[in-house]
Amino acid sequence: KMEMKLNAEILNEQNSRFIETHKPEYHFLAQSLEKKGVQVNDVIKKLQELQVAIPSWALGAGGTRFGRFSYQGEPASLENKISDVGIIHALTNTAGAISLHIPWDIPKDYNAIKELAASLDIKFDAVNSNTFQDQPSMNKSYRFGSLCNTDSSVREIAIQHNLEVIDTGKKLGSNSLTVWLADGSNFPGQQNFQEALQNTKESLKHIYKSMPDDWKLFIEYKPYEPNFYSTVIQDWGTSLMLAEGCGQRAYTLVDLGHHLPNTNIEQIVATLMMKGKLGGFHFNDSKYGDDDLTVGSVKPYALFLIWNELVYGMENNPNNPSPAWMIDASHNIKDPLEDLLQSLEAIQIAYAQALLVDQKGLQEAQKQQDATLCQEILQDAYRTDVRPLLREARLCSSAAIEPIASYRSLNIRNQLIKERGLHTVASGL
Ligand code: LRH
Ligand code: MN
Ligand code: MN
């Protein structure tokens, strides 16, 4: 079977349709930004360098507990998923990594998988463990928790699973493990909070110690779901405490959907970066809970304020490693690849806007306690239409000036349907 290949020639031809509109728009913006003292070439370079991992589970249509509507031409194998990321990466030059969830994505032929990924310039980002679903091979259950379980033999199964995930990641060249736990309770009194947290801490320490020396552990938090009364790692404070308990290479992972309504996420970002403990980032957007909607589709200003702290932290907190960026969004009704292209665009827009913030002016205005001017400075950056910068960055990287328009005019989904069939069921969630 022929998998979809996007080469420079095809993309050049696509770009020729947009270049005449793009160039003057870009030059006009670049000129006005230079006048304000922005080093536009630096911004373009930073945009070209940003790489955001695509989670394997976002390549098929997501579902809810009420059902799932599959999308046509969905990837049925890990190979298919990697080649889908290859399409997105070729169009944007921003998706040079894939994040696997084990056991959903266990490779059969490691060499073939590695070769395929390398041929598409795709790296293996953090590997994710799954102790929120029982596996057929288990003779015990995670029904009452995994790493927190009162039964040490269940904790042992969950720890062993994490060690196997590390092994899988090692074989692929990944160098980080993300742990998200569904552990918690549904009713008051059901669980002893202290015991559950203590067990979790010991289990995580064991996993941390078993990682290779150059690996990082990312500990994800979430306030509720699937448990609805309590969650063991419910917030960034608990995650940070556990990361500090494990050691230097353990970090907190922020998933934008994992906060109660109106939480000031940008302040959490600032605090974690000050401590050098922001390890990973899952982008998505939400209206109500962990909705996993397209990045920037609901609260683009909040996304900008978060990026503003990320940019500040990347410049002022050398003790914080460059965070591992990932999109953790997947939706029911859109073409998953178009959804991811929109998410990447939103991430790049907010990043570019944050790079335009007049940091010196802002600091000065803060010193003067000039709240009006502080807001003016932030919103001047936020209200800039930075899309010509993104287009230029993609053009300079031989990607598509207009990814979605090109994806559509190249009929990529139809080709995938021809290769994979109309009624497909994505492996995974
Ligand atoms: C949990 C989560 C976590 C999981 C993924 C499937 O809500 O954000 O990152 O691994 O979703
Ligand atoms: Mn997540
Ligand atoms: Mn989530």
UniProtKB/TrEMBL annotation:
Keyword tRNA processing: no
Class in the EC hierarchy, top level: isomerase
GO molecular function: L-rhamnose isomerase activity; metal ion binding
EC number: 5.3.1.-, 5.3.1.14
Domain of life: Bacteria
Keyword Isomerase attributed: yes
Key words, A-Z: Isomerase, Manganese, Metal-binding
PANTHER family, A to Z: L-RHAMNOSE ISOMERASE
Protein name: Putative sugar isomerase
Native species: Flagellimonas maritima
